[in-house]
């Protein structure tokens, strides 16, 4: 639907670039607040790893959400964007000392801890500062999810979390340490989940673990179920906002919370996925032996999901009303995986046309920045 884009403005800009529809973002946030606030003990944190664009973060912070971070840089970005420290949680399987110290200095709400060695390091660093760090334990529930294998996180074979068998031992250890306070359990089974039965399975597993703890007279203050709710990549115009009502209802109906417990969510893709598009220009149209190629100035370095996950993004020629033709839509990078889609039906493409890769608000721009950071000397990053 070409009318949703300010095309004349786009023509003046150098491509490729990310475009964020702030109305879609604000409408999504309003829906999340409306549906989650039906349950007073529900609290939503935005998963900053999905998109850390400062303007996007500011709009999300204005909605009242907390922030879920997986790096020191994300913690800093959240605080800089105005998220209150007591609404910031810090997850991630590989927290470095400087990141832990940064979070301790800010006085964040909670560390989601993924191993005994990490717990011991947090206790040691907190002791050096004369502080007590609040911790929740990420438990690997061995629950599968109907999603791509690379974005499942809740199976025993995944690197994430503490096994169910070790849960009691880790809790006992935390209760002995003087500079950590055990306040909750954390779970996350994967991303881009559209089948609510996956979340029902997680609820059932949490209920089992809660009963196990209750037998020991342990009732944790907070349960954190992560995020994982997917978006409709095929129909971004028809369904710009995910079904948050059904999502929150699933947990309300199937998770047996104690009266004093709060339930925390860490939604990322579902918040920002549909508001973003990668705008790119056609450099050439090449007739191959058996197919046509639309060669764009954006490549896998700008949006890596199709190359990494074979992910689908709806592609539209937003400057053409000509008859539809089939194209392999590719980037300029010397790599055979630099392909956005094969046999894609587009209005006839010519040199200079603008194309939109839709539903790119999550794990698009942020993955580009992560690639730059990974390949840039750290002294240069500090200078900039």
UniProtKB/TrEMBL annotation:
PROSITE patterns, sorted: ODR_DC_2_1
Subunit structure: Homodimer.
Enzyme Commission (EC) number: 4.1.1.20
Keyword match Lyase: yes
Keywords: Amino-acid biosynthesis, Decarboxylase, Lyase, Lysine biosynthesis, Pyridoxal phosphate
Catalytic activity, as annotated: meso-2,6-diaminopimelate + H(+) = L-lysine + CO2
N6-(pyridoxal phosphate)lysine modification, residue list: 49
GO biological process: lysine biosynthetic process via diaminopimelate
Name of the molecule in the record: Diaminopimelate decarboxylase
Cofactor: pyridoxal 5'-phosphate
Pathway(s) per entry: Amino-acid biosynthesis; L-lysine biosynthesis via DAP pathway; L-lysine from DL-2,6-diaminopimelate: step 1/1
Binding site for substrate: 269, 305, 309, 335, 363
Family: Belongs to the Orn/Lys/Arg decarboxylase class-II family. LysA subfamily.
HAMAP family membership: LysA
GO molecular function: diaminopimelate decarboxylase activity; pyridoxal phosphate binding
Organism whose genome encodes this protein: Bacteroides graminisolvens DSM 19988 = JCM 15093
Pfam name, any one: Orn_Arg_deC_N
Highest taxon above the source species: Bacteria
SUPFAM superfamilies: Alanine racemase C-terminal domain-like, PLP-binding barrel
Function (record text): Specifically catalyzes the decarboxylation of meso-diaminopimelate (meso-DAP) to L-lysine.
Annotated positions binding pyridoxal 5'-phosphate: 228, 266-269, 363
Top EC class of this enzyme: lyase
Domain Orn/DAP/Arg decarboxylase 2 N-terminal: 36-272
GN (gene name): lysA
